[in-house]
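From the pipeline queue, job 12 of 40. The input is one protein chain; the requested action is below.

Action: predict structure.
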Amino acid sequence: MLGPVILAASRSDKMRRFVSAAPGTKQVVARFIAGENVDQVVPIIVDAADKGLEVTLDVVGEDITTVEQSHAARDAYLELIDRLKDLGLGTRAEMSVKLSMFGQALEGGHELALANVRPVVEAAAAIGTTVTLDAEDHTTLDSMFAIHDALREDFPQTGCVIQAYLFRTEADARRLAANGSRVRIVKGAYKEPAEVAYQDKAEIDKAYVRVLRILMEGEGYPMIGSHDPRLISIAQELARRAGRKLDEYEFQMLYGIRSDEHLRLAAEGHRMRVYTAYGTDWYGYFMRRLAEKPANLLFFARSILTKD
């Protein structure tokens, strides 16, 4: 399987240099990355709002190594929130953050990440929106959930992400659903060992449905992160069985993938949120998108081979 190989490459500096220098890279990266800075991403947010879509914004660049970089990440999100406030788009856009970008992996990282993310959550709340904590590899999750719990004491709308391929996720979903949290369910996009995660696609899909049922039948707000037509149909049926109204859950898809489906779901009255990443340190995010779907890798390879 190519996915695990690509995920391993996402941590390789040598591969980072090779991919960054490849002649077709810029063209393909533009498919998944909305821009390099706030000025470039603002028109995309406005366009999405005009089309009846909502967005969640991710400033890419989680592979930091210093406290100063963690503070810079915090400040990048605060700049974004200021721009959303000026444009009056706070109710149409939320933020997604990776705690590794806020210093979670550094010495004293749990406290550092919490200290960095709290002002972002506070600023988001002040303009009428919120923050979702992205899930990363399984070794970071206990810290992520503890930070999530701490933030929800003052900002109960703070969301988090759970990953269907992890064995622990059904238990996490029950706890979160009972607490009424906002929870995004995704399949998972990190290289995880067989001791903690399903490896077979069919088993991951089954786990996804089990977890989604828990969320739909719970007291929280489910956010369905998937591009899979079958899972989207199942989500709609589970929502119907649970008696949920259209504004009591939402779908989320990545910028640049199945854009027509974004518009179709929104036209049907569903809340449809587009996960929109931007920034200059795009390599890790980009490689995970390639790993998720072979067609993305083929698209990348074809772009390199046909580039003059």
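Job complete. The first helix runs from residue 2 to 9.
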